[in-house]
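The aim of this short unit is practical: by the end, you should be able to scan a pair of folded records and say something sensible about each. We start with the first protein, listed as its amino acid sequence and then its structure tokens.
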Amino acid sequence: YVFQGTKCLYTDIKEYIRISSALNSGRSVRDLQRKELETYFQVPKDLVKVGPVLLLAALPFANYVILPVIYLFPRRFLSSHFWTLQQKVDFAVISQKKKLYYYRPVFRQLQAKVHNIDDLASRNKCQDIFYKLGSGLHPTIDEILEVKPLFVDKPYGIFSITNRHLHSLCRMHGISTLPGKQWRLWRHAGFIREMDLAIHREGIEAMSQHELRHA
């Protein structure tokens, strides 16, 4: 898996360079296919994670220390290129459980600000949605879209929420909580939107079961 993983990572790096060159030459993000979007978004993260390990492993005699460590902690020190199929499933479950831990804090932050909504009709709509969510029910798409303006500006806009709310949102989406959280969340939201549009363009039937689960 080390050899195969390195080969797959190298292939993705070459693809990332090709996509970046195309975008720099004027190609639109909307022209990218779903798999190209995934590669463009994920490769920099993989390099930050795997790069130091590969560099250390190249040092003389470092393999005797590095290899046992990465085999013991593959989720922490290796990208998905180096994981077995079972590890991909197991690590996805672990990641999802970590995200779920922050759902309640994010929801509490939303509830705490509902009284800051000046327009009474919008406040009532938002409260109805929160009541449904708190009761384990799903609001309709139309109900969510009616309160969309509240998430563009105050009180729920990404540049209006509290630092605590930002922290929980970043943890929920697996994003660094270092300074610059708003812009990282903004970029992540943009990626999710472009992925949704790409899935809509290409059709769900074009996706494998593993890709559907990941999406």
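Turning to the second protein, read its sequence before its tokens, just as you did above.
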Amino acid sequence: TVELHAQFEAVSRMGDEVTLVLEVERLGGKSLTLNLSCIAASGELRMKVRQVLVCTSLETHRSIDVPALLR
């Protein structure tokens, strides 16, 4: 994770029914950007998150192409 931004719009309480939505905003050569949102049963946005992930080699710790399996 090279960037992570979370914004909490409203409170969710134990027992609230919510829907979690995960979307790929961008799929690049070595990175991907994900958007996650939490939406109440009423349609109210509770939370949104934007995360940028970079794929890296476990051996060299340098960026690598996004693996085909992830694409």
